[in-house]
Amino acid sequence: MAIYWVYLAAIGLSMGLAVAITPAVNAVSKRCGRVDAPAARKVHRQPMVRLGGVAIFSAMMLTAVCFLTGPFLTGAAAYLSPSDFLPTDVNTARLLLLGGAGFFVIGLADDLLDLSALHRLAMQVGISSYLWRCDIRISDVTIPGFESVSLGWLSLPITVLWLAGVVNAINWIDGLDGLAAGVASVALGCLVVLSGGVAGIAVQPMLGILCGALLGSLLGFLCYNSHPAKIFMGDGGSYFVGFMLASFCMVESGQITNAFPTLFPLIVLMVPLADMVSVIATRLYCKKSPFEADNRHLHHRLLAIGFSHSEAVWVIYALAVATGCLAMAAAGAAHGGSWIVAMSALLLSAAYVVVRQLWRAEARDSMNTIRGNEIW
Fold first, then answer.
1. Are 7 and 212 in contact (CB under 8 A)?
2. Measured CA distances, 162 to 20, 83, 128, 324, 347 (Å)
3. Are 253 and 262 in contact (CB under 8 A)?
4. Hey, which end of the chain has fewer CB within 10 Å, N or C?
5. What angle do CA 15, 241, 54 make, to 5 degrees?
6. Which of the four pLDDT bands, split at 50, 70 and 90, describes residue 325?
7. In this predicted model, what pLDDT tens digit does every residue of 289-307 receive, in sequence order?
8. pLDDT in tens, 78-126
9. In sequence order, what are the residues at sequence separation of 6 or more whose Cβ sits closer than 8 angstroms to the Cβ of residue 304?
10. Residue 221 in contact with residue 52, Cβ under 8 Å?
11. Which residues contact 271 (CB under 8 A, 6 or more apart)?
12. Other CB atoms within 10 A of residue 149 CB
């Protein structure tokens, strides 16, 4: 359990840095005129800075550098055996930070230059493919009840699809104040706990430190991004957070020894992934481009049926907590965890009631619209 003190130190340092850096980024961006103007499908009604990702990125990177080099690493090693700090783990951490920096640059360029969706996707594929060549990849798939299957040449497209998919899922769910940062924080909290070696999973100090650093930066950023927000994370922030989450889940799932290593990442990130898949399916059904922005996301639907801004955010937070609990249970299913399953069932039951009311309200509005058209 001593390793959690190291993780808490990473969280605290990164959070402090984010709290200090975010106001500076906000002030400089306003002075330079880098603001996001209000629009029909956007919730905010005044120009807002959308370069908060700079603060998230800077806080995490500074914390990671401190813990991967110098006295911080020496102090962390005092809580562990020498075998816990393997050279391969350090090299993996550096590759993940390099990939995160690449995705951050893509998002930042989009914030500043408004890149096309095709250009952004091409650069995401390029960075993901490079990391695959560096052995950051999904090599096999394990489904409960079946033996693990090696992906072979399919490893490359599936790895690229996973990384780019999670990045865009986090980007798309960033539609309300504090929503993306909060949902990502819940998932990171689960990863921090698991990286400490619970449920028979090997201790992964490098992963825990990186997860803690990102979690701290998001918590610090939430001090300014919670409703009413003073700054947005922008594409730079959402791309960076999405990539780090996707890659962390890949590394963590490789240490799960039960039947759920493949399902774990899908469960812990179920909320943003389900929102993205449902929106894409709806757009395709309506014969529209899957990249065409609209108001079909879950948070838009919650607002449409009468939830306030804060209420909609907390409903989605509850869903994220439920799926996070289910992911924890899946990771340690062979070692118990009935209380986690019970909590998940309770939260998911509440979520079911909300979603049922959501669809009923939409159906009622649709019928009223049809009747109104018939009258006229």
1. yes
2. 33, 30, 9, 18, 27
3. yes
4. C
5. 65
6. confident
7. 787 777 888 888 888 888 8
8. 555 555 555 557 788 889 999 999 999 999 999 999 888 889 999 999 9
9. 295, 361, 362, 365
10. yes
11. 173, 183, 316, 319, 320, 323
12. 12
Matching residue, tokens 């309200």: 361
Decide if 89 contacts 205 (C-beta within 8 A): yes
Between strands 140-141 and 149-150, the pairing is antiparallel
Query: SS3 breakdown of the chain: % helix, strand, coil, rounded to 5?
Result: 75, 0, 25
What is the predicted pLDDT for the residue at 43? 61
Q: Name the token pair of 359.
A: 């669809």
In this structure, what is the dihedral angle of CA atoms 56, 59, 60, 66, given to the nearest 10 degrees? 170
What is d(CA 83, CA 155) in angstroms, rounded to the nearest whole number? 29
Short-list 64, 320, 332, 334, CA closest to 215:
64
CB 246 within 8 A of CB 187: no
Is there a cis peptide before residue 23, judged by omega within 30 degrees of 0?
no
65 Cβ contact partners less than 8 Å away, ≥ 6 residues apart: none
